[in-house]
Write a structure and sequence with these properties.
alpha/beta, globular, 14 strands
Amino acid sequence: MSSTSFPPRAAPLPGLQADLTQCSVSGLSSGAFMAVQLHLAHSSMFVGAGVVAGGPYRCAESFRAGAVLAGDAYVQGALFICMNPLIPQAGPDPERLLTAARATAQRGDIDPLEHVKDHRLYIFTGTKDQVVQSSVVRTTEQFYRKLGVTGANLAFVGDQPAGHALITTNLEDNALAANCPPYLNQWPEGAPSEMQSWTILRHLHRKLQAPADRLSGRLVRFDQAEFFGDEGTCCFSPYGYAYVPKAVEEGKVKPRVHVALHGCKQGYNYVDLTYGRPDRASDPPYGNRYMTTTGYNEMADTNGIVVLYPQVEGIDDGRIQNPEGCWDWWGYSAPDYYSQKAPQIRTLHRMLQRLGQ
């Protein structure tokens, strides 16, 4: 269990009778790695995934013998293979990881891989990204192509001079090539003129209506604790959020669900840790921006899509080292972090099941 002191509980996540065969997921950075894991773990529920600056499935296990101490292998793989390999050839091997995915599916720990071949993928890397190298993100494309995703179903964008960020049209956000918090960068004048989230949702769901100029629905805060299992919080914050369009809340539309996974340092409850202790004096002012300013809600509002914004936070104690509030894509919460049994994936799946009620 985390040592986090939880505040009073919020209202429960509502059941909205969502169509759980038409879900989609996207994420940035650690959220992109997790998007791939969630997509494969429960591919029967999804129609596609958006991956912005993320690597392939079980990427941190590319070379399990690559550390002197076995306990260090995954974190070193995450840092030096899945984020910044010395040369592209030292990066993740899509064929090896495909073999691992097949073995995982054969054990019944993830859904059958046959579901994935008809899905739609949007994969993006910026040429100025200094956090997750473009060569790694290209192996994500190769991995999905080896799974059978072909033609127009797979959109790979790798020619934009962007840093490590989700791209917006917000004047408040960083310059396009920036590689720093809040990891939201803006398109410059003359570049693509729409939110990257809109591009992602249009590709994954197709034939969407134009985004809303003014939101009709509301952002719901809900209690994440009721979805935790015996394994404890696993770095989840007390609260999660969901954008619910008015037509969905009034029961006029049977919704689809899009899961939007923030990156490191982007959760609402992110706080700098100094020597393992929360450093409120350095508390960043941007924790709500991923769920309010990235454009997902505007596109969802006119298309009957509920956007689920689960939230994780930083922990740095004797058991878990996750000081930057990242999703678990290298095994800090459990050895089988990539499977349906993984604490974080189980929690996310329970949230989706609630929305389907």
